[in-house]
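Reviewer 2 asked us to include a model.

Predict the structure of this chain.
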Amino acid sequence: MQKNSVIRMKSILDGSGYLDSRFKAVRARIFPIVPSQYDVTNLCNMTCTGCMYFEGDGWFKGDVNQSFEQWLDFFQSESTRGVNFPHIGGAEPSLNLPALRAAAKVFKRGVIYTNGGKKIPEEINLAIQVSIWSDDETEEEVRGNRFFNTALKHYSGDSRAIFVCTLSKASAPSIEAIIGKCAEHGVQITFNHFSRPNHREYAADYLRDWQLENNADSIDLSLTKTETAAVHAKIEALKSLHPDTIVFSEHYAQQLVRDDLYTLDSQGVATNCASRLGDTMRHYLPDMSREMGTKCCTPNVDCSSCNLYAMAYASITDRLEDFVSSETRLTEWLDIVETWESIFCRKTPVSEAVIIPARELTAQEPSLVS
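Predicted model (structure tokens):
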């Protein structure tokens, strides 16, 4: 931050013992975070429209057959590089359990992005985010399969997991029922936002069926800012009914509808996105090779429409300088950061335990992969 911003923030914290202690507690619990991104398989059991992995032609098409020991060595080298918060996706990461087991042995924190169709074993102690797009029937129309009810059975009462509902034209009409189902099964829910891909061909056939059945103007599932604000208002209203189920920051929501989230360069690429790739934040393909020459781990998403939650939360929390104009604004920033913590840093007894260094695991490994 610039010197004047630091002075303003110090003045606010000096004037409020409560904010000062809250700010220091957040810093102690969460930071520093050194993230990096890993696709651990090119297999999936769904065909979602706008898929961040398969959309376009750039997805990895090679063989993925590395052993647990190879993944363990790889993740240990990433930890040595300084990474302490892996973001693990796929295609569908639950289809490569050796990679997940290896990551869980190296990292104390991190997140796995899954569709919930296959349960991730309980000894894999990283946070789990279960992607849902609507109720089961509509999910099949826009994702090619229905896993919502299956995922609820897999993760009911599982403190590692939080369900992430993508807000779109397909899910908005069912949002109250979706939240109600999560509450019934003892799982928390937060929200992503459908973000338009650069390519439209993927899964277009069954999306046209959805378009006809719902009398939609197009196969673009994106919500307008006005539509987004209306869904956010409904979610806020439902918090009173399901306070322990909904994990969502109204201040974060306001950031998404108030202004454009990102500044774009002449090529239409976001210049102030905290998920841009660099020397520290890297994106690795399923063969453990580093992807080069791309903007981020979701290069097929149009930056001008990107409201993907992982990128948005990271970018907003990275802009602390924008929130030091007043005590109210700094309180909003803390609310956003603490909500991010609730989503990405799931607390479990195993995740609080001391992690055994990878070099000591050889004798134990057979019992973990059986």
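The chain has a mean pLDDT of 85. DSSP finds 13 helices and seven strands in the chain. We have added this to the supplementary material.
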